[in-house]
Amino acid sequence: EEYDDCWLRYDRIDEGDRPASHRRYCQHAYVSDGAPELGAVRDELRRGIGGLLGREPHLWHHPPRTVDGFLAIGTPDEMAVVRDIVAVETVESLADGGYCMRTGRWNGADCLVVTAPTDRGLVYGTFHLLRLLATGRPIDDLDVIEEPATADRLIDHWDNPFRKSVERGYAGQSIFDWELLPELRPRYEDYARLLASVGINGVVVNNVNTQLPPRESANPAHDELEGWRLLETRSLEKLTSLAGLFRRYGIRTLLSVNFAAPMRIGELDTADPLDPEVEAWWKRKADELYERVPDFGGFLVKADSEGQPGPYEYDRDHVDGANVLARALEPHGGRVWWRAFVYGSHEDRAVQAAETFAPLDGEFHDNVTVQIKNGPIDFQPREPVSTLFGAMPETNVGCELQITQEYTGQGVHCCYHVPMWKEILEFDVDGEGTAVTDVLGDEGEGIAGVGAVGDDYNWTGHYLSQANLYGFGRLAWNPDLDAETITEEWVRLTFGTEPAVVETVSDILMASWEATIKYTTGGLGLMHMMDNGSEFLENHYDPSPEEWPGYHGATADGIGVDRTSAGSGYAPQFRDPVAERYESVDTCPEELLLFFHHLPWEHELEDGTTVVQRLYDNCFEGVETVRELRADWASLEGEIDHERYRHTMERFDEHVEHAAIWRDTLVSFFYEHSGIPDERGRVPRAN
Ligand code: BDP
């Protein structure tokens, strides 16, 4: 089976282009024995150093003698050389996953130590070292201390086991083959390497939709969604095998579970979370799981949301629902990730999550994390941040981001999400400098990304979408990294260090998100301009603004949705002064203006342009930018390998065409409702 190496290419660097320190330190490596993670470290050193330097390192089980330099990788208690070069207290004070890298002299040789309090940290340290080598950085004067900003950094796969489809996946079928498991595909290991190389430490292997919503089940065209079956005893052997592989890379395995499992899998006639038999069922199931997978991460649950079962059916609330699962996992160190994605009972869905969850603050068990989507709607190209991040101080919260490009061009458009995620994670929730990331800092909190990989050769459908997976991991590890740093790192690892290539690809990525926002929304905060498709899980790719009057609020007199205190009340859910800023038309930032306000088409923006004219201009500008990005990509012909050049070029051709379709649909829509022509005459008048 063939597939791309993504950012772990380890292409040979010519002797002349590489700092002398690489060879001096990396020809010999003393790696401690024991834990499975150290096997992964050794394999990676062979691959990485073997590739980059053209010769595999000599691996030692004791400190090498009579060498000029060597690597020493292990925990302090296992290696005297580590203790001599790095203070034990420094290492021991680090959080799980943290590590130190430090150069020193030992027994007449130069020595580079990679050490950590846990084996998982050694894996991360090794990948960091290889990243330095691959990007051509010198390593002879290192003193690095790294620690993850948040304890849990998860990928949520929306993969449907058995039938292998991926909900909102644009890169082919699921990489997980549950029919074949417990037999392992080589690809799993390479996936684990990619994830560990950017610090991901948990993988939820199946879709949050574990059964088909009732309204759909009547449709014979759909196979059943059967993710709930993974909790069956006969699936556990498969899970055990996969979990064992991920464990080598410090990654814990988790499952999405069906709240009605005691009925679907067990023999009970209720799933009432307060029923003692239900409680006992979950406990038995957890015991059974942990017997096989002692480091099992826990359960992810979508309950009472879009047709998935939940506690409401029994007149119980989300606390009752989450806590019964939490009690079952607690003795084993597992965690419940309980999603806050609920809507349907309010005219404006934006307000519902906070109304439902904020009053429950403080009632969830310690091993429950409430997992909140970044915004109040649903992964739209740009949304305001969810008010829940500032509303549950006594609860462990997690932030759910979308790596897959459901609403941002799927496998076709180039849209780099890192700048969006920076905006979200840096958002000041209280106006006093408390960023979303600060809310995520405690034990039991974290960041989850909805996965983007599939069985395609290039993993993510679009080669440039690999950058979203890379960037997600890097940001989850350290949200303070700036977008430019992450981008440059990815490009250097993926396309090499030639300055013109690095600059061109980085610029393309950095410009892509703003362009997407413009041609898919008009850039003033409109939601849901897309096609919902006619059946379950379709589309979200083409434009179809007429479908969603309640979301964009377009009428003859104006556009936008009033979400101030006079309207649906989303703005006042923020804490002051944030609430005040959104509440007033004068202070609301232009890019979210129509999210919070319904305004006349001819309302004047700060520079005197009217709302409708700005919408026109933005749509045209967005497409212009995409044309420029395509031209920039075209300039790389001959500078990068032909296959990646060609594949991506074809994507750009389609991107330009499709962006123009978006533009034309949106501007006609704005014109039809407003009756106001484009000042620059670009918008076709009604026919
Ligand atoms: C929406 C998707 C849908 C998911 C749902 C969710 O369109 O496929 O099931 O969110 O997050 O974005 O549960």
Key descriptive features of the protein:
Alpha-d-glucuronidase, C-terminal Domain; alpha/beta; 37% helix; eight-stranded parallel β-barrel; 11% strand; binds beta-D-glucopyranuronic acid; TIM Barrel; 687 residues; 3 domains; Chitobiase, domain 2; six-stranded mixed beta sheet
Write up what this structure looks like.
The protein is an alpha/beta fold and 687 residues long. The chain folds into 3 domains: 15-146, Chitobiase/beta-hexosaminidase domain 2-like (Chitobiase, domain 2, 2-Layer Sandwich); 152-495, TIM Barrel (Alpha-Beta Barrel); 518-561 and 598-674, Alpha-glucuronidase, C-terminal domain (Alpha-d-glucuronidase, C-terminal Domain). It is 37% helix and 11% strand. The chain is built from 22 helices and 16 strands. The chain has helices spanning 20-26, 36-53, 80-85, 88-92, 119-134, 186-197, 214-217, 233-247, 261-264, 276-292, 318-329, 352-357, 418-426, 436-439, 466-477, 483-495, 499-521, 549-552, 578-583, 593-596, 611-634, 642-674, and strands at residues 28-31, 58-60, 69-73, 99-106, 109-115, 143-146, 152-156, 202-204, 252-256, 298-301, 335-339, 368-373, 396-402, 446-450, 558-559, 599-600. The strands form 3 sheets. An 8-stranded parallel beta barrel has the order 7-8-9-10-11-12-13-14. Helix 6 (186-197) links the parallel strand 7 and strand 8 (202-204). The radius of gyration is 26 Å and the shape is globular. 53% of the residues are buried. Mean pLDDT is 95; it is low at 217-222. GO terms for molecular function: alpha-glucuronidase activity; xylan alpha-1,2-glucuronosidase activity. This is Alpha-glucuronidase. Residues 133-459 form the Glycosyl hydrolase family 67 catalytic domain. It holds the Pfam family Glyco_hydro_67C. Residues 6-129 form the Alpha glucuronidase N-terminal domain.
